[in-house]
Write a sequence for this structure.
């Protein structure tokens, strides 16, 4: 199982980023996938989830209306479009497959002026 996140970076408040997660080594097409984020010293928190078909999504209250999770099962890719970013969104972002204990290296998102 391999999960590799990318797309993070430094962005000003109000800006946007699109995170990607390349998945391999398991049945991506029938897995519920999620994005989590973690700030040093704090627990990892769920940001958004998407069903295997992509037809149903769920968001943390902090992400609702600003973030959009999506997937491309043909490419084994998971995405997180993040708009209207704020300093409190600064964290390391990880993708996860439900039921699997594996984590990728994550991608750092820093929102700062």
């Amino acid at each position: 199982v391999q999960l590799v996140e990318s797309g993070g970076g430094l962005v000003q408040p109000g800006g946007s980023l699109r995170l990607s997660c390349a998945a391999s080594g398991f049945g991506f097409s029938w897995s519920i996938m999620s994005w989590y984020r973690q700030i040093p010293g704090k627990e990892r928190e769920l940001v958004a989830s998407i069903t295997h078909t992509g037809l149903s999504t769920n968001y943390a209250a902090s992400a609702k209306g600003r973030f959009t999770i999506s997937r491309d099962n043909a490419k084994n890719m998971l995405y997180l479009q993040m708009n209207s970013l704020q300093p409190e969104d600064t964290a390391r972002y990880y993708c996860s497959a439900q039921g699997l204990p594996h984590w990728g290296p994550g991608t750092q998102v820093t929102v700062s002026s």
User: Anything to note?
Assistant: The mean pLDDT is 97. The beta strands are 2-6, 9-11, 17-24, 33-38, 45-50, 57-59, 67-72, 77-82, 91-97, 107-111. The chain is about 0% helix and 50% strand. The first strand starts at residue 2 and ends at 6.
